[in-house]
Design goal:
TIM Barrel; eight-stranded parallel barrel; about 325 residues; alpha/beta; two-stranded antiparallel sheet
Length: about 325
């Protein structure tokens, strides 16, 4: 495994981190989830990315991870960097969503109980909440650090103007932002255009999720919608409307480049994200150990020629394919 320094901190992250957004909930096979976490750790992935609402149902991914920690990895806690988040809908009532101090504090306490951890290495504000002053949200994160419930803090999906405000507040409180999390893939370039430079200037690391555009950049939809796919399961994050002829044609063209590199399209898409020098780590989501191992093989060919990068940019620059 390769590691990169996270911003101006002393933390190094594996270039691939394991995300538990999908496939680790109570509705999933615990044995498969356990095998994926243990294999990831054995392969050098020491960063595991959680959130309070991951499942389904919400909270169950943290319960799954907590069980694995207790049964298999408790002796390795100090070798691991574990993150969680709060901000999306989690429980009933007006205090079960958003980024108020009440929600942030209660969410962190609940997440610690579910995982069985004494602290999180990183706790994020999962999204900007326009109903809550940013000072309130950031002060809650600062206080989690001062209470010993988190070692570092992060922000996720913040628009550029609020991202800048968040960094400034945290720096004034001497609790700088360790990680800024954004969606980034060949089909979603907004963060590269709007957020990456701000993070680098503030000394924050950058960690990216959905590098495969929810599976579209695997090529699995070229011949229709597979019965076991995310679209077939009615995911709100990838729907039939996303699978347009122009995107499929881009997938075909990108697949040719990947094949010439000796990679699958998914492997090339992951390597492409990591070829962006400002990116600290990419979060991979997997449904099996075989898929995890395949994703890790992207690191066998991480570099691109200028010709390859220019051709990829040409393919993905079509406005209609961007999410």
């Amino acid at each position: 495994m390769q590691y990169r320094q996270s911003g101006h901190s002393g933390i190094q992250l594996p270039v691939m981190s394991l995300g538990l957004w999908h496939n680790f909930g109570a509705n999933d096979d615990y044995g498969v989830a356990r095998d994926m976490v243990l294999t990831a750790f054995d392969r050098g992935i020491c960063h595991f990315d959680l959130a309070n609402n991951y499942g389904p149902p919400p909270g169950s991914a943290e319960l799954t991870f907590g069980r694995i920690m207790k049964d298999d990895l408790h002796a390795h806690r100090d070798e691991m960097l574990i993150s969680s988040k709060a901000g999306h809908d989690m429980w009933n009532g007006v205090y079960g969503t958003g980024s108020s101090r009440k929600n942030i504090m209660a969410s962190c306490d609940q997440s610690l109980r579910r995982t069985g951890l004494e602290y999180f290495d990183v706790f994020y504000s999962h999204r900007y909440d326009p109903a809550t002053p940013i000072e309130e949200t950031m002060q809650a994160l600062v206080d989690l650090v001062r209470q010993g419930k988190a070692l570092y803090v992060g922000i996720s999906k913040y628009p550029a103007d609020k991202q800048r405000e968040a960094y400034a507040y945290l720096q004034r409180e001497h609790v700088p932002c360790l990680l800024s999390q954004y969606r980034y893939s060949m089909f979603d370039l907004k963060a590269r255009q709007c957020n990456f430079d701000l993070a680098v200037a503030a000394g924050s690391g950058i960690i990216c999720f959905s590098p495969l555009a929810q599976g579209l950049l695997t090529g699995k939809y070229l011949d229709g919608i597979p019965a076991d796919s995310r679209v077939a399961k009615h995911s709100p994050f990838l729907t039939p409307a996303h699978i347009t002829p122009k995107r499929l044609e881009a997938v075909r063209q990108l697949g040719v480049i990947a094949a010439n590199r000796g990679q699958s399209l998914a492997q090339m898409a992951l390597a492409w994200v990591l070829a962006e020098g400002r990116v600290t780590s990419v979060i991979i989501g997997t449904s099996s150990v075989n898929q995890l191992e395949s994703n890790l093989s992207a690191l066998d060919n991480p570099t691109f020629t200028t010709e390859e990068l220019n051709r990829i940019d040409e393919i993905i620059s079509i406005p209609e394919i961007s999410f």
